[in-house]
Amino acid sequence: MLSLILRRLVHCTILFLSSVVLTYALASTALDPRAYFEGQQPPPPSRVVDDELARLGMDDRAPLPERFAHWADRAVHGDLGRTIDGESVDAEFGRRVGVSVRLLLVGTVAGTAVGVLAGVWAAVRRGGLGDRALTVFSFAVLCVPTFVLALLLKTGALAVNRAAGSTVILYTGEHTPALQGGWLAQLRDTAAHLLLPAICVAVPAIASYSRYQRAATLDVLGADHLRTAQAKGLTPGRALLRHGLRISLVPVSVFFSFGMLTLFTGAVFTEEVFGWPGMGSWLVDSVQKGDINSVVAIDLFAAAVVLLAGLLADVVHALLDPRVRQP
């Protein structure tokens, strides 16, 4: 197992370094920070814009390899540069990363757990009313873009609050400003603000994982070793839990690494709609301003999340299937 993890770590490191180069090249060629300064009223002189871009490391007159070498030299020393507004990217990254991690962690864990359990439940009751209802729900959710789902949830919360005459469901921001009370009151307030964004992240995951888990469980239900276990006296449910669930989780664990990128993309729109000050809303704002350093930092965070999810999926896959651990 240790050798497997080391091999995967080497692969992840190579992929991460490759993503660093490609992300910087793409952001530097696609974004135009000069237009942000020139669009200000009154527009600053060209010499002032040139000096400011050079100070921020975004001077489009310098060759791209030279700019990347300068950025990489600072990055290996823990300095990701300055935002287009002159703030430290490291400080902004530190303020926003915890917000996104909390949302992704809660949404991913809830969506994966509920999706897997729902898929097993639907497979055992194949063709029943519950199975058909879950199928309709899954395909309906998968056909709806994440930002539409977020807007629907927000509109529903507004309607409930309007009908109740007070704020029953919190739908914007991470905290209530100037909230009084101890840590328990703060925790309840954070959980209330997290409810709708977490549902928005978890529901697409439930729809996806339930379909994969249902198909994987159906393959296992017809296996010979399950029929043998039932012939020895186990009920179908106990036979599935003891001898079938582990095998059916193998393909879903592989899907987890690919699904993580979709979840992160959905979280970008979710943060923007619900006003969460995380990496997603920072990305939208940075792209609009042409802030190269910030966009690169956010994309590196996304690459790290996806690669870590892939590493976790490989470890889980190896634990479920001993053949994977063989060199």
List the helices and strands and how they pair.
Blueprint: H1 2-30, H2 33-38, H3 46-56, H4 64-75, H5 89-124, H6 129-142, H7 146-164, H8 183-221, H9 224-231, H10 236-274, H11 279-289, H12 292-320
Helix pairs in contact: 1-12, 5-6, 5-8, 5-10, 6-8, 7-8, 7-10, 8-10, 9-10, 10-11, 10-12, 11-12
Polypeptide structure, described:
- With 327 residues, the protein is mostly helical.
- Helix content is 77%, strand content 0%.
- The protein is built from 12 helices and no strands.
- The chain has helices at residues 2-30, 33-38, 46-56, 64-75, 89-124, 129-142, 146-164, 183-221, 224-231, 236-274, 279-289, 292-320.
- The longest helix is centred in the middle third of the chain and has 39 residues, at 183-221.
- The chain is globular.
- The mean pLDDT is 85.
Give a quick summary of the entry:
The chain is mostly helical and 327 residues long. It is built from 12 helices and no strands. It is globular, with a radius of gyration of 24 Å.
Notable characteristics:
single chain; 327 residues; mainly alpha
